[in-house]
Write a structure and sequence with these properties.
The protein is of the alpha/beta class. The chain has 14 helices and 14 strands. It has two domains: about 200 residues, Glycogen Phosphorylase B (Rossmann fold); about 160 residues, 3-Layer(aba) Sandwich (Rossmann fold), CATH 3.40.50.2000.
């Protein structure tokens, strides 16, 4: 049975850039996770299809052994009508064309319900992986349209297997919806070898912040911290929407603070040089799922100072500091950066945790085993 091949289709509308290696699409943590999963399964000899928006090129192509099936363009159609055509109609065509036994999705939206409905009608298996704590709340997708929430909840309830990132998410889904889940740790999108670890003495004395410039990420907290620690350097990496007044105001504020350097969206393949050189990663979000940046930082032996702590891992495993205010963040940053002994303790813990839970070869085999159980 272990040699039998899985026929799986992964639906990730904005992941074409992440899969192909370009800079198109959203290319956030979810997109890199699904792309990694697709390529790894294909490398194991499984039949893998991958559905994305049409961003140019042929309607179908093969990328690293993965069959890419494209929908309509994301901006195609008439607003109000395009929900049905061409978006839903092109999704149905793509799902039919993939002709898989298992369909996998990893981002809470109306599409979740559309896939679940199609799988129910076609008697196929549907797997959904929760992307954030917000999706598990009693009122998920609070900022979305009414049909986003309706179809998303239908998709949650219609999945044959619901996967959570953390125990907290699993409990929220049970309490709010009565749904049982599997818990699987996400694979790191980098396979980080020992030779890539950089010692304390060779790192540069700056704090790294990575994320979208959006309200839930609270970049303004970091700017306040930078003012509290004028002798500490900070580097901010994040894409922003120029039409968003909130994001624009923050970018303007960044340029006015001498000890903060802003980098626009950095290609995923270039992030390791920042993980290797910074002293620590700082997260100021009001909520998250399980940040990809945490896993990547821990893989490179970097401690994390964060206002979000998935399943209290940061506290329990001593992977950095869990904090609740800008003042606490500033204090934690000073503790880590000014103590070589403490930095090495946290760094060693972080690396050990990455190897046991998130190293790709370890985490992806758990996904493969789950898909096999569903497949046969």
């Amino acid at each position: 049975m272990h040699n039998r091949k899985i026929n799986i289709c992964i639906v990730s509308h904005m992941a074409y850039g992440a899969l192909k290696g370009g800079e198109s699409g959203h290319a956030g943590g979810v997109e890199f996770q699904t792309s990694l999963l697709a390529k790894w399964l294909a490398s194991r000899g499984h039949r893998v299809s991958f559905i994305t928006w049409d961003e140019g090129g042929p309607k179908e192509e093969i990328v690293d052994g993965v069959r890419v099936i494209k929908l309509c363009r994301s901006d195609e159609g008439i607003p109000g009508i395009r929900f049905f055509h061409p978006r839903w109609t092109s999704l149905i065509r793509a799902l039919n064309k993939a002709d898989a036994d298992i369909y996998y999705h990893n981002l809470g939206e109306y599409v979740t319900g559309q896939i679940a409905l199609w799988c129910k009608l076609k008697d196929r298996r549907f797997v959904y992986y929760v992307a954030s704590d917000d999706e598990c709340s009693a009122l998920p997708l609070r900022e979305g349209r009414f049909y986003d929430r309706y179809f998303f909840i239908y998709g949650l309830r219609g999945s044959n297997c619901l996967i959570a990132q953390t125990r907290r998410q699993s409990k929220m889904l049970l309490d709010n919806y009565g749904l049982q889940t599997k818990i699987l740790p996400m694979p790191c999108t980098y396979d980080i070898g020992e030779e890539e670890l950089v010692p304390y003495a060779k790192r540069k004395d700056y704090v790294l912040w990575i994320g979208r410039i959006s309200r839930e990420k609270r970049l303004e907290w970091l700017l306040n911290i930078a003012k509290l620690l004028p002798e500490t350097r900070f580097k901010v990496i994040g894409k922003f929407d120029p039409n968003d007044s909130y994001a624009r105001s923050l970018i303007e504020a960044v340029t006015a603070i001498p000890n903060v350097i802003y980098h626009d969206m950095v290609p995923h393949g270039e992030l390791p040089r920042f993980y290797k050189s910074a002293m620590l990663l700082c997260n100021t979000s009001s909520y998250e799922g399980f940040p990809n940046t945490f896993i990547e930082a821990w893989g490179f032996g970097m401690p994390v100072v964060s206002t979000f702590d998935p399943d209290t891992l940061i506290q329990d495993r001593k992977l950095g500091y869990f904090v609740k205010s800008p003042n606490e963040i500033a204090s934690a940053i000073e503790k880590v950066m000014n103590s070589k002994t403490q930095w090495y303790e946290l760094s060693s813990n972080a690396r050990r945790y990455y190897l046991t839970e998130h190293k790709p070869s370890v985490a992806l085999k758990k996904f493969e085993a789950l898909f096999r159980r569903l497949h046969y």
